[in-house]
Amino acid sequence: MNISDRLQKIAEQNVENIEQAKAEGKSAIGFYCLFTPTELAVAANAIPLPLCGTRNDPIAKAEETLPRNLCPLIKSSFGFAVSGSCPFVEASDLLVGDTTCDGKKKMFELLNRHKKTHVLHLPSNQDSSTSLPLWRKELDKFRDVVEEQTGVTISEERLKDAIKLMNHERRARKQLMDVNKNKPAPLAGSQLIEILFKVGFLADKKKGIALMEEVAAEAAKGSLRPEEERSADRKRILLTGVPVGLGSDKVIKIVEQCGADVVVCENCTGYKQLFQIDEDKPSMDALAEQYLSTPCSVMSPNTQRLELLKEMVTEFQADGVIDLTWQACHTYNIESFTVEEFIQEECGIPTLHLETDYAESDTEQLRVRIEAYLEML
Amino acid sequence: MQYAGIDIGSRTVELVLVDETGTILESFQEDTGFDPIAVAKTLTNKAEFDHIMATGYGRNLFEIAFEAPTVTEIKAHARGALAYFPDARVILDIGGQDSKAIALLKSGKVQKFEMNDRCAAGTGKFLEVMAKALGYEIDNFGDHALQAQDKVQVSSMCTVFAESEVTSLIAKGYDRSEIARGLHTSVVRRAIAMINRICPTGDIVFTGGVAKNPCISGVLEQETGRTILRPHDPQIVGALGAALLAKEKNQ
Description:
The structure holds two protein chains of two kinds. Chain A is α/β, with parallel strands linked by helices.
């Protein structure tokens, strides 16, 4: 059975698994951002579900309430929730967001009218003396909210186990993504996105881990791609910027149609999530420290993103860097200037900055830019 | 051997023929209309060539219909501009429906580019709509704008909003040549922002249909203080570039 079919089967089973778990009294908690520690949900025996919207179809519904000139990710997330069209939002007993950007935090206020939404106050920098203590307190509050929702007391032991499990999942994700350090890339960017995206929804984390380890092992042995895509001459693109999932992966698809590869993503649906929580420190402290250090553009400054990019360009032997911004995402849009300057100076390669939304209307315009960029490399 | 380049743009299609030395033998132009491939067929029937390369927004359609190689407008314009000005480092192309600024390395390779094409703002289409709103012909819109004693500030860049801004300026009794001047200036300001993003100094090679407009290039020179270089026929630069690339590919 090929990967897509296997994923499809597991995904279908998963919806039943979630229903069953809920019938047995388990809670499901929906997350909107990488900053929120899913470990707290796992420790309380709840199912964490990633709800960040990546499809265009619920946006029209969202625009009945939200302004048009808002990032498509926020509109999609909101649209899914208010239209009742996403089974995972429907299954969630509690939604959790963070005050990452202005658009999201104000959207969560409105989302709370539809379903109970807890918002964590995320500081705007990663200062260990001022921001970290605040964030640490936010996590305490969040733990109380989760305990109240689930009726489970989150002991240190439970939390340690949850951290171990999620660390294992992140190692499996890393193992899978690292396969593409090989040249030619054994996995197409679109394949990689599909696996990572679908695994996120699995109620049984161990199933997802096993699948990723299996695919990584298979891919490491030889390419999982058709013969015509196995040329070592294909240009290798590193994608950075905003998160990308199924439905918002048009840039990856166009790159592939132009005969190049997105070998890896640096964004929060890709390499940015591959940290490890220190298992030796007191758990709540370790979670607070690690999650606050996420190199997202909402942080000011955000120099860790640049360091990560430099490391990845070398390790993945990238020929080019495409920096993607969703329309009206100010933080990534502005940071693109710094990224371009840094990559040019440190890695000696030009970047391509693209600003678009989830709709297909500008596919041809994007294609010209991407083709012209590939001609340059 | 003869080589052809065809640039299938949103408003016009150009075909350029060059010989073994890269000298232009002939060029043809037609309006794109609603069936770009039919227009491309008409043009290719007029010319005799051994190899052809396509560029412009219709290049992929052409590739399928004629099994010909393609190149993006960016690379084609860069190549075409270098044929006219071998030392060119910055190119501004304003066409019917998009505008782009291209920076070149000393070697002639594309170093960086910026494009505006999500809407008609700052493009030939914008000027066309505005000329019509003011009752001018597009071909001498620039000449009329140059005659203005003063200029009116036009702040809307969106074609739809600018049209209603023009309507209200007319209602306020402004002279139409002054409004025209204001519109030209707004197009130039947008182009300058794009040029400065990719290369803030040096001569600018100005191509595309809008380069024929004397007011745009005049204001561009005035506002940037940089020398504006215009090819003899700025509209065929993309097609010429494609023809030269076809020649270099096959020689």
